[in-house]
Design goal:
alpha/beta, 16 helices, eight-stranded parallel β-sheet, binds ligand FNR
């Protein structure tokens, strides 16, 4: 209503939120390096496409005369009340999209009361982002470093800076084959972007012979060594539990057995995610992976979802298949590219409004009313 009324006075929204048009207009604004770093996927792009195809295969079956005029979007996730079942996924190196980077995202998220998940690969420090976030809800995403002292230091800083939940990303222990980035030899980290969190860390700095400012190549090499490798096991999650007293969520789960292991390891939640199709080319669409995982562990821990969410209908579908909440990645990154804080807010607010309307028009008053019977295979 607000948009249509303003339209009477000749004002239109700052930019499109149609998902494809938004991506295209971000392409027009950004150079090919940053644009493809965000938009691209692993290998042939099969999993980026599979993520969207999975949504296309399920359709909502609307119900009538259900008194859905008044709706309540709030949900409880990890014991905390959220205004809507939506969060901002961790997206690293945001200063390639806008100079304010993660600070703009933190401010927009705080304005809307939507949790922001801050990436380990942030271009601003944990403390700077916390300050920008103010009283806003915030979670911290960990790329799990090989050095336990650096790991403990990052967790300590995040806790002190008011990040309440920890999201441990398991699917990116090395970067996938990403042809768009390889073709352009474009990797933001190697250009020193997105290194703020480790580079600002006193324990990380103490492990270097010279400060990152004085010897950038060595610092980057150490950074890469620290965050690359597979020598982790399910047992080692105990280390994270020891050093983090809030809820812990494992991100990148696609198999029901891994979801069960997360429960056995005492985790509080999981994110069913394939990193937006950026890691395993040819992997299953994330929404296709969701139902068997919800069957396996949905009663025991909070199952969150990401990879491919573009519209309100997508959120309805993921929740109907058992996700407690969803994370959205690229769309808000494109909003950031368009207008910093205002751009992120415009994208997220539009997505929330679209979700609210689709929920109501399909006959539901709250996320809790959604279940598999709201859907049919196309
Ligand atoms: C990501 N993602 C990501 N995930 C993570 O755990 N840590 C990170 O630093 C990043 N960085 C990152 C950068 C960019 C440019 C993108 C697009 C994605 C993955 C992200 O959290 C999420 O899983 C996907 O973006 C979800 O898919 P959609 O919504 O982009 O389709």
């Amino acid at each position: 209503n607000e948009i249509y009324l303003q339209g009477l006075g000749g004002a239109v929204p700052p930019f499109t939120t149609d998902p494809d048009a938004l991506e295209q207009s971000a392409r027009d604004r950004l150079g090919p390096g940053p644009f493809w770093y965000v938009a691209g996927g692993a290998g042939s792009g099969a999993t980026v496409r599979a993520n969207r195809e999975a949504f296309d295969r399920v359709r909502i079956v609307p119900r009538m005369l259900t008194n859905a005029t008044e709706r309540h979007l709030g949900v409880s996730v990890l014991g905390t009340e959220l205004p809507a079942p939506v969060m901002l996924a961790p997206v690293g190196v945001q200063s390639i999209l806008h100079p304010d980077g993660e600070l703009a995202t933190a401010r927009a998220a705080a304005e809307l009361g939507v949790p922001m998940v801050l990436s380990t690969a942030s271009s601003h420090t944990i403390e700077e982002v916390a300050e920008a976030s103010g009283d806003g809800p915030r979670w911290y995403q960990l790329y799990w470093p090989n050095d336990p002292d650096v790991c403990a230091s990052l967790l300590d800083r995040a806790r002190k800076a008011g990040f309440t939940a920890l999201v441990v990303t398991l699917d990116t222990w090395t970067l996938a084959w990403r042809p768009h980035d390889l073709d352009q030899a474009y990797l933001p980290f190697l250009r020193g972007v997105g290194t703020a969190i480790p580079f600002s860390d006193p324990v990380f700095r103490a492990g270097l012979q010279k400060s990152p400012e004085d010897d950038l190549p060595m610092a980057i090499l150490r950074w890469v060594q620290l965050f690359t490798g597979t020598d982790k096991s399910w047992d080692q999650l105990a280390f994270l539990r020891e050093h983090w007293d809030g809820p812990i969520v494992l991100k990148g789960i696609q198999h029901a057995d891994d979801a069960r292991k997360a429960v056995e390891s005492g985790m509080d939640g999981i994110v069913v995610s394939n990193h937006g199709g950026r890691q395993v080319d040819g992997a299953v669409g994330s929404l296709d992976a969701l139902p068997s995982i919800v069957d396996a562990v949905g009663e025991q821990i909070d199952v969150l979802f990401d990879s491919g969410i573009r519209t309100g209908a997508d959120i309805v579908k993921a929740l109907a298949l058992g996700a407690k909440a969803v994370m959205v990645g690229r769309p808000y990154a494109y909003g950031l590219a368009h207008g910093g804080q205002v751009g992120v807010k415009h994208v997220v607010r539009s997505l929330l409004a679209d979700f609210d309307l689709t929920l109501g028009l399909s006959g539901h008053r709250s996320p809790a009313e959604l279940g598999p019977d709201a859907l049919r295979l196309a």
